[in-house]
Amino acid sequence: MKINTRILIIVATVTFIAIIINQLFWMRNMYKSYQQELVLAVDASLEDAIFMEYSERLEQLDGPRIFSFNVVNVKKKDTSEIVRREVHTEDSTFWVEYNKNDSRYSAKIMQYLLHKSSPIDLDILNNYMYKLLKRKGFPIRNTYVEYIDLKTHQIIKHNKPKTIAKRFMISTDVVPIDILNTIGVKTYVESSPRTIFKRMAMQLFLSILLIFISCYCLFYLILSFFRQQKIEQMRQDFVNAMIHEFKRPITNASSMMDLIPFYLEKKDMDKVDSYVNDSILELRKLTAYTDRIQRISNNDPERIFLNKELVAIEPFLENLKMKYASRKDKVINLSVVSNTIHQVWNMDKLHFSNVMDNLMENAIKYSDNPVDIEVMVRDAEKGIELCLKDNGYGISDHDKKYIFDKFYRVNSSQTKRQTGFGLGLTYVKSIVEAHGGKIRVEDNPSGIGCVFMVFIPVE
């Protein structure tokens, strides 16, 4: 099934944007959750700080108590949560109503009785607030408290710092601190988004990690698709090239075989012999093509079995020189240099001869006339390096990354004029690696052509 590349890119882009938006919404909700948690912690801490400040203020009162109070139950049975009580002090009596589940009702009565003679200490209250929030793990900066008259809604006093960032303030509701709701306090906490983000550090890290992993997987899938599409295209080119190479000898042999009966009737045996020999030659070409494709296709390292033997280096190179010096299609200037202390190679002679044939054929095929080739064998660390330089068309940096891939062919005007299957260098690399070696390609220092370097370890 062929998928439109443009549609794939659009789907991938939409998926990527959806992942980002989803994570941004998740982080936004997480931020609000932590902000709400801070608000609830501030409210709870304020309640505790009020009671702690009140307890400390009572302990600091000097001399005898100037008043006392008695709570008298007027109704012996209370059926609702709201309880009404009569409070007696040394100079007055009044009624109060409170929730019977409120465990601090007596403290609120005392706050009312003390608010004139010994009002709340905002600095102590603020200090308790700050410590309680720090103890709960909230990285706050500053806090301050407003003391408010709930009847007139006027601020009686406050301990607000002179310099404080108003835009980062979190405030509580006004909290009545006495039993008759005549006075209350309101707390402000300075906590910038940075402090909340610090508390969210692990969630932020996991979210970023999830985005990265999702994007990487998405990118990998798209890259795999394009790579598979490219391999399929190269495979198709290989099939077309193979059909083209096979079609020529088959067509020629078929045409000549059709003419043989005609010349047999005329008893022209010279023509018959000529066409039979030519047909056999074309069929041998077809067999040679088949053998070559079979040989270079079986380049899976697990399927390569080497029959290693000790091969003399200099005779091997001399045979190579003699083989290609007799070429008629192009003028070949072949230079062979042996600059190694080693005299023999431990290698599979058949496979390594095929490696050299592939490299030589490529150097000749992708070069203009005359062809200058230099083959040098030299010592390398823990082995021998064979260098093959040519004066051909060269290979771009982009193509250098892929020329050893199966079915890959350089896309240039020079290479398109030459037939090929894109399997030769794949076979070369497989044989070299089966010998425990490595192969790489570089630009020719002369600026024309390229250099193939084959390293084979010496045992």
Whole-number count of domains: 3
The secondary-structure element order is HEEEHHEEEEEHHHEHEEHEEHHHEE
Main sheet specs: 5 strands, antiparallel
The proportion of residues forming helix, as a percent range, comes to 40-55%
Structural class estimated from helices and strands: alpha+beta
Residue fraction in strands: 15-25%
C-alpha geometry: rod-shaped
Mean pLDDT: 79
Distance between the termini: 50 Å
What is the alpha-carbon Rg in Å? Answer: 47 Å
Beta strands, count: 15
Runs with pLDDT <50, length 5+?
A: 63-77
The number of helices is 11
Description:
- With 459 residues, the protein is α+β, with helices and mostly antiparallel strands.
- It folds into three domains: 5-199, no CATH class; 201-297, no CATH class; 302-457, 2-Layer Sandwich (Heat Shock Protein 90), CATH 3.30.565.10.
- Helix content is 50%, strand content 20%.
- It has eleven helices and 15 strands.
- The strands form four sheets. Strands 4, 5, 6, 7 and 8 form a five-stranded antiparallel sheet that branches. A five-stranded mixed sheet has the order 10-12-13-15-14, with helices on one face. A three-stranded antiparallel sheet has the order 1-2-3, with no helix packed on it.
- β7 (175-176) and β8 form a beta hairpin.
- α1 (5-60) crosses α3, α1 packs antiparallel against α5 and α5 runs antiparallel to α6.
- The protein starts with a helix and ends with a strand.
- 20% of the residues are buried.
- Mean pLDDT is 79; it is low at 63-77.
